[in-house]
């Protein structure tokens, strides 16, 4: 078990030896990553995050890996062959990566191996049951699983299994965990009995992302701030598996001039659509740079090591996790309004 994990979890005897013993877990050189789900085209918010992730990795001499998070096969199929378009969009912007692109759908055995040593239990609750069992959230969007199925007896489990396949949940031994963000400093956020395997047998995002980041040597996770509340859970699972938790950098969100946040569900345009509509690649690149508070360049390699990548002094005291936008100078940490 890495020493850092012992420091994170001095009292928990539950850490598995997954990270130490898995054949793929040769400690690779440190890496950053971009990990899109191939469920829609990458909009300019996604591409801004990709550029920031690439730049922070390359500027700190890390490898940069790309991982396609394609576990939700129904949504992936509905989107057609969008992963290849996503990769082409990265190339169009001049974002390069190291090694082969990893696809989560080809790594199912790894996720099964990873949970084998964790303290888990089957959960038969439907979404509706969970919604009616949880009390009103005491923090924005925090609705922890109330642990209904944790104490079922063996015969109750057998009986429930006759009508419903269970999800697999982590029996979490903490309700809070620390994370470090490059812009927000040390934060402490909530952890519950999160789902590790969905009830259709698909590994859950919070498991797969941790296993892959750990095995790929990712120690710098750059992604949009709408995923910030997952960080404590992921750091906790990483520590349980014996991985060092990564340092996070949560990028700001991008909204349209009218204020509506760019989102996949709202059908925000991808690079190919924008270019087909006559907006030149260099104009898009210039906006991406500007929105990050960086000089407007055509080749992102010209930005490596640029001034302006370091956020203003993050707080040094541990604070409650707050995913709200950060005000202050423009940078990867700030929100941006699209103006092409
Ligand atoms: N695959 C996730 C997405 O496209 C990102 C996961 C992550 O960066 O942790 O939203």
TrEMBL record:
Q: Which gene encodes it?
A: gluQRS
Protein origin, superkingdom: Bacteria
- Keywords carried by this UniProt record: Aminoacyl-tRNA synthetase, ATP-binding, Ligase, Metal-binding, Nucleotide-binding, Protein biosynthesis, Zinc
Q: Which PANTHER family match?
A: GLUTAMATE--TRNA LIGASE, GLUTAMYL-Q TRNA(ASP) SYNTHETASE
Q: InterPro entries, per this entry? A: Glu/Gln-tRNA-synth, Glu/Gln-tRNA-synth_Ib_cat-dom, GluQ/Sye, Rossmann-like_a/b/a_fold
Write down the Pfam families for this protein, in alphabetical order. Answer: tRNA-synt_1c (PF00749)
Q: Please report the stretch or stretches of sequence annotated as the Glutamyl/glutaminyl-tRNA synthetase class Ib catalytic domain.
A: 33-290
SUPFAM superfamilies the UniProt entry points to: Nucleotidylyl transferase (SSF52374)
The protein depicted here goes by the name: tRNA glutamyl-Q(34) synthetase GluQRS
Q: What class of enzyme is it?
A: ligase
Molecular function terms, GO-annotated: ligase activity
Biological classification of the source? Bacteria, Bacillati, Actinomycetota, Actinomycetes, Propionibacteriales
- Answer whether the UniProt record assigns the keyword Thylakoid to this protein: no
State which residue ranges cross the membrane. none
Its EC number is: 6.1.1.-
Q: Does the keyword Ligase apply?
A: yes
Family recorded in the similarity comment = Belongs to the class-I aminoacyl-tRNA synthetase family.
